[in-house]
Design brief:
- This protein is α/β, with parallel strands linked by helices and 514 residues long.
- The protein is 41% helix and 16% strand.
- It has 19 helices and 18 strands.
- The strands form two sheets. An eleven-stranded mixed beta sheet has the order 1-9-18-17-16-15-14-13-10-11-12, with helices on both faces. A seven-stranded parallel beta sheet has the order 4-3-2-5-6-7-8, with helices on both faces.
- A hairpin with a 5-residue loop joins strand 16 and strand 17.
């Protein structure tokens, strides 16, 4: 599924009107009708009071279409128009007249004193005030209304996007946004639903197909949602006459005294994700630990008991994953610099390797093309500097990726993979992954994928999805709090099998079911 920008959605609207030979009013009718169908399917004529707050643009026109359908089907509707400006769109005016023809005049809200005070916690609030075209502060009247409605405990349903949110930027003031329990987004989710600063304004969302031009939707270059449908075509079947050398040799470099576990996690994840062989390269203090806890791995050690003061592994390796638990001492920094100067293998860089590079930015120029960096937000800040908001962060990551021809996996509650202008938003995973060591597991999985022959970008996208899915398949038995990084490894096999045995319902439906 694609995440279109506001500009792209407007282009899709215009092409749809032209190619399908319909009017703008027809498109608004289609959108409002889809919202009605969604509500009617769930409410089945229930007389819960529905308060619809309409703006005076086309989003308000959609709300008025909804109001008309609800009234025609006997629902209990209170209809309002938020009079925040003297300008009205034709789509609003035409649908306003159609509602009036039902002898139900919407209440015009021009002042705070006119806001309804009788909204019960059992009622439904429908927000159709502003849509994706908003690019300024909503204004005093709307902001006062948002504050008034946000205090209500009634269920809040937003049409297309919660009012006050911008489709492609952070709001100027988070208090000037209407918080929704559920958002029905037309044709495409909005990027604001996936970034922490703005995702909090809708608890759940669902996409409604309003029949926008299919050719445009299929060909437009846009941000991608990565779900089962996107990763299944990437999956590489095992060969009948393969052997362990067929699927590559992963080299995992890291660890220091007290932090050998991170290497064990990454090494085990690489092997269980499907590569043929794994060698762990660690300080001498890690030798016995790894040989006893993970006998399937081969182990090489640096000539130092507690840290990597040299990095000189020997063998025919396919890919290197490095950085976990290695520390940033002067000796380790020198060793990493020396290794990077001579290394020609594909790289997956994590943790302290990123921290060292952030202090020695010249090292970026020596990285192989399509090196994968897997920073969490703090590590990312060290690499690219501070950002004003999450949208600004994404722009900085795209610029960083373009300049250094690298792939950046931004680890967060929703993990986002960036390669140049390409942005890929992962859909799997849950809060169980917010625990120590899961980042090491992710590095191991991605490294193991590259060893098997996956192209780096596909390895990153598929690896992030599979990693997240380990928590999804485990959550019923493990719960959020008790899940640890080893559980992610133990559920890689289930996550693989889940791709072929479990149809993936949209996450929003899973949450509703709970």
């Amino acid at each position: 599924m694609k995440i279109l920008s506001a500009k792209q959605l407007y282009q899709a609207h215009d092409l749809t009107i032209k190619n399908q030979e319909i009017s703008e009013l027809d498109l608004l009718e289609r959108a409002g009708g889809q919202v009605f169908n969604w509500m009617h399917t769930r409410m089945q004529g229930s007389q819960v009071k529905i308060h619809i707050f309409n703006g005076i643009g086309n989003n308000g026109g959609v709300g008025l279409v909804l109001a008309r359908h609800l009234l025609e089907h006997g629902y209990n509707v209170a209809n309002y128009v938020v009079n925040y400006s003297k300008k009205r769109t034709n789509g609003f005016l035409k649908n306003y007249d159609r509602v009036k023809s039902l002898k139900q005049w919407p209440v015009l809200l021009t002042d705070e004193s006119e806001f309804p005070s009788d909204i019960s916690p059992d009622d439904i609030i429908v927000d159709s005030i502003f849509g994706i075209g908003l690019n300024r502060d909503p204004g005093t009247l709307a902001n006062l209304l948002f504050a008034h409605l946000n205090k209500s405990k009634a269920f809040k349903l937003a049409i297309d996007i919660p009012s006050g949110l911008y489709a492609n930027n952070a709001p100027d003031n988070i208090e000037h946004v209407l918080s929704a329990n559920f958002t029905l987004s037309f044709q495409s989710p909005k990027m604001a639903f996936f970034l922490p600063e703005t995702a909090v304004f809708t608890e759940q969302w669902e996409v409604l197909d309003i029949g926008l031009d299919q050719e445009y939707m299929q060909t437009v270059e846009a941000t991608q949602l990565i779900s089962k449908n996107e990763v299944l075509p990437m999956y590489q079947m095992r060969e009948k006459f393969a052997n362990k050398f067929t699927y590559g040799h992963s080299l995992i470099i890291g660890g220091s005294y007290g932090k050998i576990g991170s290497v064990q996690l990454a090494s085990k994840a690489a092997l269980i994700s499907g590569c043929g062989l794994v060698t762990a390269y660690v300080p001498e203090c890690g030798y016995n630990v790894l040989q006893s806890s993970f006998p399937e791995a081969m182990v090489q050690t640096a000539n130092d008991t507690k840290q990597l003061s040299e990095i000189s592994p020997e063998g025919n390796f396919t890919v290197v994953g490095m950085g976990m638990g290695m520390g940033t001492s002067t000796q380790t920094t020198t060793a990493l610099k020396s290794f990077l100067k001579t290394n020609k293998l594909p790289l997956v860089l994590d943790a302290d390797a990123l921290n060292i590079i952030s202090e020695n930015k010249e090292l970026l120029k020596g990285l192989p093309e399509l090196t994968i960096l897997t920073p969490h937000k703090k590590e990312l800040e060290r690499l690219i500097g501070k950002w004003d908001n999450d949208f600004d962060m994404l722009n900085k990551v795209k610029a960083f990726s373009t300049e250094n021809n690298c792939i950046v996996v931004v680890k967060d509650a929703i993990t986002i993979t960036v390669y140049k202008e390409g942005v890929f938003v992962n859909t799997s995973g849950n809060p169980a992954l917010a625990t120590a060591g899961t980042g090491d597991v992710l590095t191991g999985i991605i490294t193991g994928f590259i060893a098997q022959g996956y192209e780096p970008l596909n390895a990153a996208k598929f690896g992030v999805y599979l990693h997240g899915r380990t928590a999804d398949v485990a959550i019923e038995k493990k719960g959020y709090q008790s899940f640890i990084a080893s559980d992610a490894i133990n559920n890689i096999s289930k996550a693989y099998l889940d791709m072929f045995t479990q149809p993936e319902a949209p996450k929003v439906e899973e949450e509703v079911a709970q």
